[in-house]
């Protein structure tokens, strides 16, 4: 099995810590290891480092080399332009398929939190066994919702499990009906009450040949470019062809571009203690729950409730506050109602529009 870790995201909802030159995957948000390092750590405990690849924007390659000095340099895939995940997966598929064996590709986000790491490995191995017996299928990993979350994507699946001799185990596989991106609260509450919706963990597994075949079927223009890139992998022409073809690939996601359209797309239901750490409120609730303070840095509080205080160098004091996010960095301070933390992305968009480049 080969692993593709996607590390090119911007993480704008975690501003002002997550910045353009060092987004959240390169930040130590949860421990003394960056999110990317933690992602690699939880995989390489059971799989060899040589089979782990990182896909990222060209500008982040040196950061990855610094964070993962033991990772083979050739395992860092530099993207010459920002495209959606489908294009990144197409590029990796071109590289993997050129290497010979038709291996399973496991796609991972670089910036998610997974508490139950042993269960993750069990899920991966069950999915691997399923694909070895059903090589034409595409597998997503879904998480049972623990509440009505508006910041996550959802997967709607059929109510009946896939029951075949090849896939019997205590982990449930369902055929996927559709993907839904970040619903409003009323819709999220409805999904939470029903039994056929899972959070989309952004983890996918498939045979390399199977996903290439789906590009040919559903995103033919990207497939043609994939083929051009594959022909020159490992040659002196690779960079030239990559720079020409990759920026022209379709701006679409693998969920909507491929998986939602394919009748052999399935989701495996998993209990991973998972969070995408997509906002400050999600970070806090994932780590310590909804009724306690999350504090990083020096902090004194008197009579406050449910705060996230993320300090840099200043001593922060709070008195009689409730449901607030307070983030301090060298050049910016964020104070935000916890229930509106998704709007931090809008702050970044406004800064960009106003030309405040140094704050991005």
Q: How are the elements arranged and paired?
A:
Blueprint: E1 2-6, H1 35-44, E2 52-57, H2 61-67, E3 76-79, H3 85-98, E4 104-109, E5 113-114, H4 117-133, E6 138-143, E7 153-161, E8 173-181, H5 185-193, E9 197-207, H6 208-218, H7 220-231, H8 238-245, H9 254-257, E10 265-270, E11 274-275, H10 280-288, E12 294-296, E13 299-302, E14 308-310, E15 316-319, E16 324-328, E17 333-337, H11 344-353
Parallel strand pairs: 1-2, 1-4, 2-3, 6-10, 12-14, 13-15, 14-16
Antiparallel strand pairs: 4-9, 5-11, 6-9, 7-8, 7-9, 8-10, 16-17
Helix pairs in contact: 3-6, 3-7, 6-7, 7-8
Would you give an account of this structure?
By secondary structure, the chain is of the alpha/beta class. It has 2 domains: 2-276, Spore Coat Polysaccharide Biosynthesis Protein SpsA, Chain A, CATH 3.90.550; 281-359, no CATH class. Helix content is 31%, strand content 25%. The protein contains 11 helices and 17 strands. Helix 2 (61-67) links the parallel strand 2 and strand 3. Helix 3 packs across helix 6 (208-218), helix 3 (85-98) packs parallel to helix 7 and helix 6 packs across helix 7. The protein is globular.
